């Protein structure tokens, strides 16, 4: 293992250029999670884990890029720019990277997601707490599976384990109605991880939302849509997942309604809103139209081709100062799911 000194880590951050140095002179606003002070811009962990939500090719590119050294450089750049918290999976790979980063002087706080593939989640939660997580949240995809199966109270039991472990307790979800339910039952949670896209639809539900069902227009005869077998004028489903823009304001309306802090993620639609800085800014401005002062955004970064930390800090500040104009929130349409209490 090649260890970098604290000075080397910060020098690596400075090597991003003058724009990164400029970003470091400005303060990132903060929120409180219990006794912890957390930057309102949090660096996300999906790219480090090779989860692009786009394609297997991009997954592989992320895994190839994020060696231990490059991961530590990204975290150091974030720390230098005023981002003081990392959100990521709590698996063995991340635990080793985090430990190495800390051994070399890294000071980022850590919010951990439960790793649903592990057999003993209560034991796993206690291990994450022992590793220094300031907060742990129940994996959103697993929360949503429990919801659809009528077993949502299983997630509540895991939240109780988090409370006993002495960390800030979080619940992740991609489904707005899950937040409605948890709020109505007054679960003992400290924060929500709220995805602005509902990525927990079945394949049939995705196709219906994307206009691929019986009511869709006739198939395309040329272009990318024809190659993929999709209907003309319908959105593509890279990675087999639908990122449907109407979802965003449905979840953001819940963000606004709850008094609990929300850590808002998939703001850029896993890269689908990164066509230009203007498009990225629009996505952030929409979030801050609804976000409360106690809420934060989580942005994954993949700086292989260009520096991203300073750019995201700049866009974050601009969006925070000038959010999108307010409009009436979208109407709620509760999902019918049987819940076993």
Query: Mind summarizing the main beta sheet?
Result: 8 strands, parallel, barrel
What name does the CATH topology of the largest domain carry?
Answer: TIM Barrel
What's the CATH class label of the largest domain?
Alpha Beta
N to C succession of SSEs: HHEEEHHEHEHEHHEHEHHHEHEH
Q: Which range does the strand content fall in?
A: 5-15%
Furnish the topology, listing elements before pairings.
Layout lengths: L5 H9 L3 H7 L5 E4 L2 E4 L1 E4 L11 H10 L2 H14 L3 E5 L2 H12 L5 E5 L7 H10 L4 E4 L1 H9 L4 H13 L2 E6 L2 H9 L6 E5 L7 H7 L13 H6 L17 H12 L4 E4 L11 H14 L5 E5 L8 H13 L20
Parallel strand pairs: 3-4, 3-10, 4-5, 5-6, 6-7, 7-8, 8-9, 9-10
Antiparallel strand pairs: 1-2
Describe this structure as you would to a colleague.
It is a single chain. This protein has 2 domains: 250 residues, TIM Barrel (Alpha-Beta Barrel), CATH 3.20.20.70; 40 residues, no CATH class. The protein is of the alpha/beta class. α6 links the parallel β5 and β6. α1 crosses α4 and α2 crosses α14. The strands form 2 sheets. It has an 8-stranded parallel beta barrel with strand order 3-4-5-6-7-8-9-10, surrounded by 7 helices. A two-stranded antiparallel sheet has the order 1-2. It is globular, with a radius of gyration of 20 Å. The chain is 43% helix and 13% strand. The C terminus is likely disordered.
Keyword list:
341 residues, alpha/beta, TIM Barrel, 2 domains, 8-stranded parallel β-barrel, two-stranded antiparallel sheet, 14 helices, 10 strands, disordered C terminus
